[in-house]
C-alpha cells in the first residue's frame, strides 16, 4: 500500500499515475480504479497530460507519458547500475527470470527484471508492488527489516519468524508456490558498503523446471551475484 504524503492533490495525482501504469484506460475505468469522482479524475489526468506525465494512445486512452522517461534518465541509481551489469550474467547462468526488489514499508517493489529469451517464465514487471507476505524475496527483505515492520507483516505471512531466522543464518531464502501457484524462487540479500541490506536479488521460474528445492540448485550462484552487486555498490 502506498503511503499518503498528506498533500491531498499530490496523493490523488499519484493515484492516477499508478492506476494508468497498470494498463491504459479511459475516464470511466480510471474512476473505477482510483475511486475518484469523474470530474476530479479527469482534471488530474488532463493536468498530468499537459506535463507529459500522461499521454493518449491510439484508442484515446490515457497511458504513461514520455515525461516520465525523460525524468528517469536524470536519475543515478547505483543499485540499478550494478544490476545492469550483474543480472544479465545471472540470467545466462540460470536460464530463468531474475529480479531485483527493494522494500518500501510493508511491500516490495521490483526495480529491475530480466526474462529468459524463450520458454515459460515468471514475469514480474518493473515497478510491480508485491506483498511482503509470500515469496523468497519477501522473506529476505523482511528477515533484515526492523522489528516493527516484521510485526506488521508476519501475522498475515505464509511463513513464520523461525523461517526468517533461518534466512539470516544461511543467507538466502526459497519459496515454492507461495506467491503464485506453479512458481518457485530463491533470493539473497544485497548489502551496501555499510553492510545494510538494501535489496533482494531473485531467480524465479516454473516449478516443473526449477524444481521444488531451488535453493539447492541456484543459491551458490545467487550469493555470488549478490556479492557482485554489493562490490559494485
UniProtKB/TrEMBL annotation:
Signal sequence segment: none
One Pfam family cited in the UniProt record for this chain: HTH_IclR
GO BP terms: negative regulation of DNA-templated transcription
Cross-referenced PROSITE patterns: HTH_ICLR (PS51077), ICLR_ED (PS51078)
Source superkingdom: Bacteria
GO MF annotation list: DNA binding; DNA-binding transcription factor activity
UniProt keyword annotation of Endoplasmic reticulum present: no
InterPro entries associated with the record: GAF-like_dom_sf (IPR029016), HTH_MetabolicPath_Reg (IPR050707), Tscrpt_reg_IclR_C (IPR014757), Tscrpt_reg_IclR_N (IPR005471), WH-like_DNA-bd_sf (IPR036388), WH_DNA-bd_sf (IPR036390)
Keywords: DNA-binding, Transcription, Transcription regulation
Domain IclR-ED: 67-233
Residue ranges constituting the HTH iclR-type domain according to the UniProt record: 7-66
UniProt keyword DNA-binding, yes or no: yes
Coiled-coil annotated residue ranges, if any: none
Protein name: Bacterial transcriptional regulator family protein
Organism: Mycolicibacterium hassiacum (strain DSM 44199 / CIP 105218 / JCM 12690 / 3849)
Amino acid at each position: 500500500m502506498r503511503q499518503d504524503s498528506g498533500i491531498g492533490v499530490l496523493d490523488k495525482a499519484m493515484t492516477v499515475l499508478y492506476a494508468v501504469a497498470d494498463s491504459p484506460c479511459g475516464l470511466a475505468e480510471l474512476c473505477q480504479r482510483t475511486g475518484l469522482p469523474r470530474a476530479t479524475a479527469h482534471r488530474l489526468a488532463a493536468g498530468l497530460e499537459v506535463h507529459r506525465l500522461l499521454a493518449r494512445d491510439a484508442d484515446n486512452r490515457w497511458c504513461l507519458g514520455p515525461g516520465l522517461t525523460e525524468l528517469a534518465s536524470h536519475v543515478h541509481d547505483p543499485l540499478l547500475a550494478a544490476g545492469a551489469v550483474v543480472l544479465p550474467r545471472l540470467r545466462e547462468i540460470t536460464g530463468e527470470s531474475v529480479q531485483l526488489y527493494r522494500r518500501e514499508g510493508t511491500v516490495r517493489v521490483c526495480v529491475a527484471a530480466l526474462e529468459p529469451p524463450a520458454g515459460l517464465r515468471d514475469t514480474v514487471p518493473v515497478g510491480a508492488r508485491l506483498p511482503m507476505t509470500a515469496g523468497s524475496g519477501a522473506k529476505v527483505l523482511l528477515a533484515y527489516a526492523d522489528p516493527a515492520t516484521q510485526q506488521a507483516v508476519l501475522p498475515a505471512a505464509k511463513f513464520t519468524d523461525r523461517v526468517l531466522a533461518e534466512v539470516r543464518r544461511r543467507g538466502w531464502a526459497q519459496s515454492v508456490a507461495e506467491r503464485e501457484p506453479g512458481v518457485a524462487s530463491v533470493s539473497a540479500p544485497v548489502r551496501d558498503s555499510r553492510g545494510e541490506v538494501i535489496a533482494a536479488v531473485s531467480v524465479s521460474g516454473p516449478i516443473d523446471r526449477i524444481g521444488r528445492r531451488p535453493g539447492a540448485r541456484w543459491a551458490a550462484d545467487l550469493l555470488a551475484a549478490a556479492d557482485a552487486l554489493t562490490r559494485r555498490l
